[in-house]
Design a protein that fits this description.
Helices cover 41% and strands 17% of the residues. By secondary structure, it is an alpha/beta fold. Strands 7-6-5-4-3-2-1-8 form an 8-stranded parallel sheet. It starts with 6 loop residues before the first helix and ends in a 5-residue tail after the last helix. The structure holds pyridoxal-5'-phosphate. Pyridoxal-5'-phosphate binds at residues 44, 46, 67, 88-89, 172, 212-213, 228-232.
């Protein structure tokens, strides 16, 4: 966010950006032959000041995503209205306790060990935590997440845990040069998701979270029903 722009200017930008995103989602849903209402839009709010997040909430956005526990907890103090907050970044086991009552879903479950701690803390808090399993589809060293070859085995182990509900899969594919290339990754993720759903213990899963600012249309065309959009809504991040 540019400090020399007035809040009003940024508000107008967010409104215009959201209008365009909604149009694109409508078109993508039509093209994919799915009901637009079945696609959930997440505003990724990392680095975005609360005043602008609140503006997004006023526009009717009802789901936000943050990568960091601390940033989420601090920001929540300043947010108004009704919304869901999901964690979408790597979570350290020692921070699970802090977040367990603060989010309605953890999308970034990337190890059996983390799932185990989430189940333990959820049980202590007397709740069941909905989670997505993060798939490292490109098998990139720089990323956390389950590898395709262990995915089913790990997912089935997590599905057995008491206070966790496995609701689906989240993935961030490798950076690509073209829309054709990214779509091939999204297809691979969808196939892994469908393969998991073939297991009786995982057949209730119904969330496929993929697609960000530059590729959410491709993701929807490949079956995503939750898209996570940051910079296309709020403008470029300034860290
Ligand atoms: C930052 C982030 C996004 C949003 O990225 P944009 O390119 O700004 O839309 C989505 N998902 C995850 C996991 C992220 O970390």
């Amino acid at each position: 966010m540019m400090e020399n722009l007035s809040n009003e200017t940024v508000f107008r930008d967010i409104e215009e950006n959201y209008r365009i995103i909604l149009q694109n989602l409508d078109m993508a849903a039509t093209q994919a032959g799915v009901d637009r209402d079945d696609i959930r839009f997440m505003a990724v709010t990392k680095t975005v000041p609360p005043v602008f997040v609140n503006h997004a909430l006023q526009l009717g956005i009802d789901l936000i995503g943050e990568n960091k526990v601390q940033e989420l907890l601090e920001k929540k103090e300043f947010l108004n209205g009704k919304y869901d907050a999901h964690l979408i970044g790597h979570l350290q086991t020692n921070k699970v306790k802090k977040i367990i009552r603060e989010v309605t879903m953890i999308q970034s479950v990337d190890s059996v060990k983390l799932a185990c701690e989430i189940s333990k803390q959820a049980k202590n808090a007397d709740l069941v935590m909905p989670v997505l399993l993060e798939l490292n589809i490109g098998e990139e060293e720089s990323k956390t997440g389950f590898l395709p070859q262990n995915f089913t085995e790990n997912a089935l182990e997590i599905a057995e845990m008491d206070a966790i509900q496995v609701c689906g899969v989240m993935s961030v594919p490798p950076i690509c040069d073209s829309q054709t290339e990214i779509r091939i990754w999204f297809e691979k993720v969808r196939k892994q998701y469908e393969k998991l759903k073939d297991n009786a213990k995982l057949k209730e899963m119904n969330i496929l979270s993929m697609g960000m600012s530059s590729d959410y249309v491709q993701a929807v065309l490949e079956g995503a029903n939750l898209v996570r959009v940051g910079s296309a809504l709020f403008g470029h991040r300034r860290y």
